[in-house]
Amino acid sequence: MRLTILGSGTNIHQTRAASGYFLRTDQPLLLDFGPRTLMNLLKAGVDRHSITHILFSHYHADHFADFIPFFFDAVFYSNHLGTRPDLTLIGPRGTKALFRTLIQTLPGFIKARFAVRFKEVSDRSFIIGRTKISPRTVVHSPNLHSVGYRIEYGNKALAYSGDAQYCDSLIRLCSDVDLALLDCSFPANKPGLGHLHAGECGLVAKEAGVTRLVLSHFYPIADRYNVQEQAGETFGGKIVAGKDLMTVKL
User: What is the pTM of this model?
Assistant: First the structure.
């Protein structure tokens, strides 16, 4: 399993792309697709036309907006330059309505020469190839279904929080994983609404028995503090502060 961070910031960060992650198991998987992550996907040397499954944690724009230029390019490519495999869009409640509306509304999108399928997830595992994916509802924003994902391949497990607050479901999602990729929007001394701060990231990692912790989804204020040190006040394992185009092997 190989994780490449495409975006470690937010849509308002000047030096980091918003949320997006490329995960290679036996499948090429995208976890979220925020603004400016498409360019980093290209910089990482990934064949964008090989992507067959995109997993979305929720539908705040900083987690899915680059799907629009990605799909526009995929339609053009399939119509004029070559063939690409079918595409499956996976996410929480509202996935079908959102993407069907986009595809039916934006000019040219309905002309794709590949199938587009939709899967709305609950807290139930499913398999893609030889990769097991276990979604779990997490607490983030009122009246918005948000999920994290636990991904298992071979003898390795990774958990991705999406955007989340400290909650029991997040701890269960991360239980005994080799790597937890957590929303670290704020430093512990400057917490914000709807997200984890660095101290809570450390607490989740400790309570879940995580081996390695990767912090990401930084708001600009988080870059002004040593969030690794803050998370390490509780968690004694290895902690990495994510950055765009960083690759982590499991």
Answer: 0.96
